[in-house]
Amino acid sequence: MDVVVPEEVEKEKEESLEQEGGERGASPEKEKKRFFYSKKVCRFCTGQIKKEEVTYKNVELLRRYIMPSGKILPRRITGTCTKHQRVLVAEIKKARILALLPFLAR
Ligand SMILES: [Zn+2]
């Protein structure tokens, strides 16, 4: 009779983690708030702003999406989704041509 010896298979896990830099003791949770903007949700998708409202005539709305200098705010700041940003930008450009919005404000 063969004696069955339970084989203990030990897998040697060699986790060699190479630490690349980061040994300066800098805390990763350190974040600087560069700009203050409210929550990033597409206001057009959520229904806060209706599709019909996005026209070149609605200067007050469009003005919220441009900088004081007249530049169009990027999506990452306003939180507008790609689809609606494109519509928005098109309307802003129309408004600019009609001199409702500035190309460049001083
Ligand atoms: Zn959207």
TrEMBL record:
GO terms for cellular component: cytosolic small ribosomal subunit. Keywords: Ribonucleoprotein, Ribosomal protein, RNA-binding, rRNA-binding. GO terms for molecular function: small ribosomal subunit rRNA binding; structural constituent of ribosome. It holds the Pfam family Ribosomal_S18. The keyword Ribosomal protein applies. One of its GO terms (biological process) is translation. The keyword Nuclease does not apply. InterPro entries: Ribosomal_bS18 (IPR001648), Ribosomal_bS18_sf (IPR036870). Residues 8-29 have a biased composition (Basic and acidic residues). Residues 1-29 are annotated as: Disordered. Part of the 30S ribosomal subunit. Forms a tight heterodimer with protein bS6. Binds as a heterodimer with protein bS6 to the central domain of the 16S rRNA, where it helps stabilize the platform of the 30S subunit. Belongs to the bacterial ribosomal protein bS18 family. This is Small ribosomal subunit protein bS18. It comes from Thermospira aquatica.
